[in-house]
Amino acid sequence: MLGTAVVDAVTGPEYNLLPVYAAGPAIASARGTVRNVAAMGGLAVLLCLLFAWKADRFGHLRMWVALFAIAYVTLASAYAAWARLKVERRLIDVRDVARTLEDVLFTPVPPELGPVRLGTSYVSAGRATLIGGDLYDVEPCSDGMRLVVGDVQGKGLETVRCASVVLTAFREAAPGARELADVGRRIEAALERRTDGGRFVTAILAEIGRDGGLVVHNHGHPPPLLRTRDGEVVSVASGEPGPPFGLTGLTGPADLRDGGARATLRVGDRLFFYTDGLSEARDDEGRFYPVRERVAPLLATGEPEEVLRRVRADVAAFTGGPPDDDSALLLVEFRGGVTGR
Asked: End-to-end CA distance of the chain, in Å?
């Protein structure tokens, strides 16, 4: 409106831009409130009357047409602003509910739990959500701690629902289950009861005892990396990984009571768990991110959270762009000690 007034003053009465002042309230409706629109409409009327008087056209038909146009546009813009604000308030409410549900689904992981120190990182490829189909959680148990890291097949809200079923079953079973395999069976049973069976979940279940005893059950998931305090980096892979959760109806139940990978951790050893959003990240030439080669040096020093920030920065440098898939990272450092949360 100021620009229109300047042009109107410079060009003189020959051009007379009175109707153009109606653009003020129209533009205000895109960002402002109804009160802002009304204020801009009033200002447009004043400018219209001022420049009509200045051009010696006060009371002429052109002035009345311009005033009518300003009034009409102001009323229409006020309605548009009211409708826009109503939709925005509804979207804010929906977003707040979604964020609350996300907070319930992904409770913060403590920096220390029983015999380990922990670091976590989650990146969702969806712009409107903080979480997707990847998941992780840790729980104390009688002899140490247990954890799950997983990835639900597919995308969309149904994957989030499936992830919530897995996490709820893990949280209920992990603290009191006698063996790690029992936790897996509880997750499988929960998926069978509470989902339509249209999706499967790859996952790692792990247990770390206070004495450093490590048990890892792999359900079709990328195996974690173990970096020992001596600098050696190996994959913790079991000989015969079980099927992903949600597929045992087709493959039959897997008995992992005596299976899985086993090792003994020493103080300072680190375990790096991740989902395929990391291993399947690609650069401009379509090459996959080489997890072991690039992550292994980053695991050597630093607090767990700092290490994961460096991993994220390295992935961003490798791909040269934002992530196109969800990814969850979990770093566990064995420190010994007593159980507690």
From this structure: 62
